[in-house]
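ligand=L263DTV3
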Amino acid sequence: MTKQSLVRRQDLAVAVVVASAIADAFPRFSYPPTAAAATVSCAKNYKRLLHQLDLGSGGGAVGFRRDNPWVQSMMTLSPTQIKPPVARTAPLMASHVEEYDAWMRSHPSALSNFEDIIAASKGKQIVMFLDYDGTLSPIVEDPDRAFMSDEMREAVRDLASHFPTAIVSGRCREKVSSFVKLSELYYAGSHGMDIKGPNDEHKHAKTRTKAVLFQPASEFLPMIDEVYKSLVETTKSIPGSRVENNKFCLSVHFRCVDEKKWSSLADKVRSVLKDYPKLRLTHGRKVLEIRPTIKWDKGKALEFLLESLGFDDRNDVLPLYIGDDRTDEDAFKVLRDRRQGFGILVSKIAKETNASFSLREPTEVLRFLRRLVEWKQFSADC
Ligand SMILES: O=P(O)(O)OC[C@H]1O[C@H](O[C@H]2O[C@H](CO)[C@@H](O)[C@H](O)[C@H]2O)[C@H](O)[C@@H](O)[C@@H]1O
């Protein structure tokens, strides 16, 4: 066994131990799922939980005990806080490693399969879509300090000089663009509900976009502001909770909330939302996300941007979307349904996904982006 493969095995073992801990703590939702049941059970559970979470479609009266599905879903979909158990039995670990290996075979590394991705781009214009948190920046406790490294910024800048590049984020557009600090990019903030093109001087030569600006949820602004104020007031008694105003949507963070208080936090959020049937609730990584019930998401934003760039109904385009979160699945699904381009999921653990490839963490995203730039520069020189 090589040193590299040994290291990878050790990483896998850690991921597996954490996943096993989740499965132990919440056996109803095994995670990662068994190889055979992975697709069906994860998808079913997630859909069921989302249905129960969807207050807009009548969530019904439910309590907020630890055994409540809503609270359970906060736990199962936000695994990082769960500590690995002290010891695991070898056979169990081995089986989970096998499951992870099986997942990696169906969602192989975009780095190891770089040549295949490049081969698929032959004669096509690559268009890049990048999620921000957990993709370009590592997940940190304070959302206001989720900075992107200078190396990553440099790589994204180089990337955008070769390919049209968009940032697609749940954050407020102004906030994410202040983190990225590159005016040559397209930005789709608030989960795609706030889209803006690059400044005039940066328009990409191969695109015919004009000043793109699309805000399909603008009528919800007063309601979102009102709910933001209510949530700040209602949740202030929960230590560590935090409400973030993302302009067309809101985030209620529970990364720094004691697990014992999650139920109470969920209760408070729901008590506010019950008066707003036009808002719905979804989950991200240790975050409850509140947004208008309109049929608009990151997938629609991807389609909107492709069309704005003049690539709609064309076969000579290869969109690549890199993201780490549930909300990115809408974009992965669009690519899968269109049979166009590739979704790349950033994850260290097996997850139900519509992505075709995977990368383990933002440092691998950085390597992938750099390779794309190097390949483009090399092919331009030849
Ligand atoms: O679509 P994204 O760009 O991935 O945005 C999704 C949410 O990201 C941020 O929250 C996440 O990152 C934080 C900083 O690392 C972390 O503290 C939090 O637990 C994560 O959920 C952002 O703050 C949210 O508003 C976005 O909705």
